[in-house]
Amino acid sequence: MRNLILLPLALFIAIFCSAASAQTPTSFSQAKRLLEKHIYPTQEYRETFYCGCSYSGEKQVDAASCGYTPRKNAKRGKRIEWEHVVPASRFGKTRACWTDGNSACVTKKGKAYKGRRCCSKVDPEFKRMEADLHNLVPAVGELNGDRSNYRMAVISGEERTYGACDFEIDSKNKLAEPMAATRGDIARIYFYMQSTYNMPLSDAEMEMFTGWMSKDPVSEDEQLRDARILEIQGNSNVLISVGF
After folding, report:
1. Total structural domains within the chain
2. Domain presence at residue 1
3. Which residues of the chain have pLDDT under 70?
4. Angle of helix 203-215 versus helix 180-197 axis, rounded to 10
5. What are the pLDDT digits (tens) for 107-142?
6. How far is the C-alpha of 148 from the C-alpha of 196, rounded, in Å?
7. What is the pTM for the complete model shown?
């Protein structure tokens, strides 16, 4: 196996891929189709991000494969959904279409709307961020719903509410704690979104994510996923992980 390392942050955000792109997604719906067909095409690659559960080509979760038990929503827990690791509200809430709406964001009944729905319709930059494959992972539907747009954090004294799945939620403080094996992946995605779209991170987040990357270096699976994404998205995106 190759010796995989993580480049220093200042260097990895400066490296751009040069692959030709023929299928760069321009909408969230298109991104989901590309993920299913090209990024997680076979059973070998189909594993949920937060729990490590296997799932089928029909997006059905094998709960026994990871010891996951539903907290409340068993129906949603049976399927995978495409989760934005960096929530759409994080990169959308400061945009005019999100806060104020747009003249084009009106229903057939004449009711104006705003937020994500409006931005997905009228804002090309938002649509590019929403469809960015680096920020999308397969997650158990219940966890996707429970995580909502909560910030990533380490929660002390948390309860385990999803069986053997090591994922915790603090609804009161709007925090989510992922298992240690995914924390480096999450950190690199946040830094990627920061460098690609000028999305600000707080000093506390910078410190936490830097620590997470150090404790959870790039794996071969992560590198191969990035390589498959780069083949599709081409030179509009920063390389996340590099192996030597």
Report:
1. 1
2. no
3. 1-22, 234-244
4. 130
5. 999 999 999 999 999 999 999 999 999 999 999 999
6. 23
7. 0.89
